[in-house]
User: Fold this.
Amino acid sequence: MIVGGGLAGISAALDCASAGTAVTLLESRGRLGGAAYSFTRDGIVADNGQHVFLRCCTAYRNLLDEIGASDLVTLQPRLAIPVLAPGGRIAWLRRSDLPAPLHLAGALTRYPFLNARQRASLALAMNALRRVDPDDPAADARSFGEWLAEHGQSPEAVAVMWELIARPTLNLLAADASLAQAAYVFQQGLLGDNASGDVGFARVPLGEIHDVAARRALARAGVDVRLRLGATAIVPGEEGFRVEAGGVAPLGADAVILAVSHVRAAKLLPPGSGVDVAGLAALGTSPIVNLHVVYDRRVVDLPFAAGVHTPVQWLFDRTSGSGLDHGQYLAISLSAAEAELDMTIEDLRERFLPALADLLPAARDARAEWFLVTREHAATFRAAPGARALRPGPRTAVPGLVLAGSWTDTGWPATMEGAVRSGRAAAREALRTIASRPEVGAAVAA
Assistant:
């Protein structure tokens, strides 16, 4: 049985079903998709937040193929990030076809928000970051911000370059993030293969992919998906597990994959699991705030852009697929958003609409017809120094009880890629356990 219908649970369910096992998936919400979902408000279909992937996110891209949703996303043929600054200034971070890391040399040489000395120092630091071992506990114990300062990176360079990438992927400021986790992100996305960092994102609302398409694929695979049914207890026994869920008789299972957040997992883990519940609590959480703005006219002709010298971190054109019949719908994604989390809607409106007008000249004469705020208080775990040691692998001390979720030790930060990889790893572990118990045979709820 799989508890949790996010990307980790979906991936685990498909893998277990493809191995010929009987699979039941419980999800407490009325939809699948976990933290990457859509909703409708005032006739507008919106995502809870903007989720992107990179070409190096092979597990997530394979999942899209598996559920028949690859045509619902777009992937850049070549990395090209527009970077906006107040006054309508724009710069581009583009890659070339040269091997990494030379593929970024031209973009960094021309980057106008740093002077020549800062750009040279940036290149040296990036080369040094390639040599950091993400699996080294000493690197995990260090702050990324501290390492950047030691390698000559000024506060300006951190703000307009390093955090442009690190903040949305780690959901932390550089000063608060683990060096090992930051090194992993940059090595995988920018400093390895020259095409790894090409950006992809959904062309349709996320619900059409992670809920509608995923449910169809699960149905084809024979998975018994039960929505609005959340587990309240997992009880190991001599002949498997008893899973208690509100309003129904207890459910039996030969194996259980617990694919929920680390906060909820700590509450559901039975005694003797061998998982450090205090360690899960110590992982903490980090918030993301998203602003949804509908203008009465088009104000930008870019599918997405990053911002510097502005409170606007990243903006995305989400007009297509939103149901909007006029104007333009922009989603503004704010990571590590502790400050914005407690701001009122009116305060956010007063701060960000002028900031958008500073970045987008066409927005100065446009009218914001709709302004909505979505807040994910516990969007991700905190990839802070020492976090790697707190992230458990899929196996627990209870045979057949397996963990999945982007917070488990996948190497990746809390991303869609990390979630899918965790689900795949959990399925392998559950199937291995079942295979070691011949009396169970093919009847497994993994």
